[in-house]
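Thread: quick sanity check before group meeting

JM: Hey all, I'm pulling together slides for Thursday and realized we never actually wrote out the predicted structure for the chain we discussed last week. Dropping the sequence here so it's in one place. If anyone has concerns about the input, flag it before I start.
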Amino acid sequence: MAVPPLPALRTFEVAARHLSFTKAAAELHVTQGAVSQQIKQLEASLGFALFNRGARGLTLTDKGEALAETAQRAFRRLFDKIEELRQPEEGGILTVSASPSLAVKWLIPRLGRFYQRHPEVDLRIRPDPMVIDLLAQSDSVDMAIRFGQGPFPELTAVPFMHETVFAVASPELLAKGPPLRRPRDLKHHTLLHSDSVRLEVNSMANWEVWLTLLNVTGVDANAGPTFPSSYMLLQAAMHGQGVALTWAALADDDLRAGRLVRLFDRALEGSMSYFALTTRAAARKPKVIAFRDWLLEEGRSFTHGAAPPPQDVPLK
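JM (edit): ok, ran it. Output follows.
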């Protein structure tokens, strides 16, 4: 049996991804008619239809869907290998995607040590409020730092820092009272919330979960203002607007500077970690290895230097 021509398979992969001949033509820099002709020739060569053509547009047939999935994986592996081979042995531009809160609060204050060790790497931090599809954006992003539990299919995932959760407030809020000696004293204060926590299943940075784990009653866990990000949440806490729950990494710089104070000597160990995610091809690049190893070192240093250790709190 004759092997279908590679250009036609590439055209099909792009058209299947977009479910549009027009968008495929734009990506491939050809005419829509050329895309249509390539697909017709491929279907004739294969002996079966790849698309259903209806009034509402294109859909894949069952066989078309199966072939599209395989073609997308194959072309992605091919382009990853080409990109890998094009890379210089050392250095070059390294683009890392991270949440804005982690970038501002934990990553950027530490980057000086990476620059000193690897001046050959041109590091670009890309703040992404939403989780990106690293496989789809591997041509523009080398690594993504993601907070979660995994698994991360088709990616190389290296955990570099585990997390704990505790309550914080500003020194000014503590000075003017009411007292905050025990978690139950929170009923006299405003609780601050973050929208980002809602994306984390059963997050210990959620007041309702945190209070339940500490067996605290009499505090309205849902009252108080909500902020779009952890960064804004901590800014509100620093300005004395209430008490916030935070992941240790995000509050570290503000605790060291005295802008925030840790409360109650209670920290809960979460089930989530920070991961360095890359495609399998990118994981072999020297610049990616250098940054990943640096993250592992910084994560170990932070974890061992964080005080005090989390306490075991029984579930209700």
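AS: nice. The chain has eleven helices and eleven strands. The CA atoms of residues 32 and 131 lie 33 Å apart.
JM: adding both to the slides.
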